[in-house]
Structure formats: C-alpha cells, structure tokens
Amino acid sequence: MRVVAALMLASSAAVPLSAQAGSAAPPRSPAPLFASDEPLVLTIEAPLDRLRRDRGSDRPFRPAVLRVVDEGGRELELAIALRTRGNFRLQPRICDFPNFFVRFDEPGLAGTIFEGQTVLPIVSHCRTGRSDYEQFTLLEYLIHRMYVMLTDRSLLARLAQITYVDTEKNAEPITRYAVFTEHFDDMAARHGWEVLQVPTVPPNQVDAIDLTRFEVFQFMIGNTDFDPFNAEPDEDACCHNAVLVGTMLGPVIPVPFDFDWSGVVDAPYARPDARLGIRTVRQRRYWGACRPREELEAVFPLFRERRDEIYSLYRNQQDLEPKVRDRTLEYFDEFYEIIDDDGRVRREMEALCREWTPQ
C-alpha cells in the first residue's frame, strides 16, 4: 500500500509527518554480515564472461558459488546467483567489470554470517586493469562508514576482498576489493520502519534534522548526484540515489547511497550536472533545499564532534594509498573551513540552496 496522498500533495502549511511519530514493527539488531567492520575474504565462482555481456534489459540471475571462511573458522560453500545491476556503469566504455546483485539460497545460510540475507548489492572495482579504481571502491566504502558515524539512520556496509573465478572461461582469477551494502528493507526494519514507496515528497514532510544532516553530508563529500524528493523520470517511486524510510504516520527519513559521483571519489567518468555551474565534481556545490539558517546551524556541531573520528577512519584504512588519503583529508579541511565561517556559509550554502518543485 502506498503512503497516503497527503505525502504527495501536502503544502507548506501541512503538519510535518515528522511530528507524527509512528512505528511499523519492533526495532532489531544488524544482521551478522554487518555486525563487524573486519574485511571479509571470499571467492566467487561464476560465469563472469557471460555476466559481463549482461548489459541490456534482459539481465537474468546466473548460478554461482561463494566460498568463505567465516568468523568462526568454518569453510563455507554457499549457492548464490549473480545479476548485473545499474545503468551508467554497465556501459562498456565506462566499466569492464559490472556491479552485481547477489541472491542467496536461504536454506544454506542458517548459522552463517550471511544468515537472513536474500538479495544484496555489490559495489565492484569497475575497471580491472587500473589500480586507481580499487581506491575508488575503498573511498566509497569509507563514505558509508562516515555516514554511520553521523547517524544510525544509514545503510551499513561491509568491505570484502573478493577473488573472482570465471567458471566458463580459462582466465586468471582476479582479486579486488568490493563492498556489500545493506538491503533497504533491512535498514528500515532495524528501526521498526518500512521503505516508503511514494513518487514525490515535499521537503517540509521530511524530518528536518535528518534532511539537513543528509544534505550537509552530501556537501561535505562534494556530491550533487541525488534527489531526496522526486522519483527519476522512468521510475514510480522516489528518489534518486536516496531511499525514504519511516512509517505512514511519520517520520520520513532520507537515506543516501551511491557515492561514486562525489568529489571525494572523483571517478574519471563523473561529470556534474550542467545546471550547477561547476566544471568538475571536485568543486563543491550545495544542493540542499532552502531552509532557515538555524536548521543548518543545528547539525554543524555533529560534524565538528565527529571530525577526529572521521579522519582516523581514513588514516587507518588498510591499502588506502597515502596520496589518496591526504587528498581526501585536505578536501574535508575545506568543508570544515566553510562551516566555521559565517560568511562562507551564507555565500556557499544558503545563497545556493534550491527551491523544491514537484516533478
């Protein structure tokens, strides 16, 4: 059942849904897969050459095997299936290695770290022959970790070092970092909520603090490739690179994902929207909804309080190259300089906010 029409038609005079607390079910703990930050080491045996060609509208799940030694020391062999996912990164000129959905055979998962999982997205390395793309994977993983530090209303992520074996082609196995991210439904269920299937929602119907934190975080990482209010043109449900969770009576919480077009990652294929007036994704552009200054000021202390913890995350990440680490932390330095300067907040955030219009 879709959320009531008031979500789609509410005016600025409506009572915000965030003021009407509700709960869909009792909260629950994270699944075993996301209960640890230790990187997984695993092997996936699959028809990789065939999967690389699954780039059109017909992309079936293809049988595969996942092998892993779990945290209890057991060697597991799990039946899975893989399907390519995404649109832009499925173009051969962009990536020679796709992102996947992995589907688990539930009867074989009891007592394993994958217990409770059904379908999960995998963020892969995109290009096999270039080491910088694996750095992009680590950076995207760390962005997820950062947001978890700022709020538990976030998708959990688990880093994995995966050895891929092609079962239908005589090719050398490849080992690269990848990221499992939590299923939207599981994230919502941890809070007793559900994923809200609505085509559009006005900013005043979204929890003010959560929305402001979401948008300031996107500004921090230099991301404008998101829309927490409207569905994409070919989709029925909101949003672009964000999911709305909550209940039919509120709250409504935006949760971000897909950060490869952010300035932090700075992937070679990332280009800013021409409407933004910036030349590269590395240039910050505030893309938040217009709001009172006090709402911005209300979330700034959280970012300041977490600064040392966030910087330590990057300094301690195994295999993150020093030049990539230093460049990233310098980029964050600039963000903190902005939010600590009233004039820059006014010029670079408040003056550039966007008015919401339904699509």
Descriptive overview:
This protein has 359 residues and is an alpha+beta fold. It folds into two domains: 6-18 and 192-352, Phosphatidylinositol 3-kinase Catalytic Subunit, Chain A, Domain 5; 39-185, no CATH class. It has nine helices and ten strands. It has helices at residues 6-9, 48-52, 131-150, 184-190, 208-221, 293-305, 307-315, 322-339, 342-348, and strands at residues 40-46, 62-69, 75-85, 99-104, 119-123, 157-166, 174-181, 194-195, 242-246, 252-256. The strands form two sheets. It has a seven-stranded mixed beta barrel with strand order 1-2-3-4-5-7-6. Strands 8-9-10 form a three-stranded antiparallel β-sheet. The chain is globular. It starts with 5 loop residues before the first helix and ends in an 11-residue tail after the last helix. Mean pLDDT is 90; it is low at 1-22.
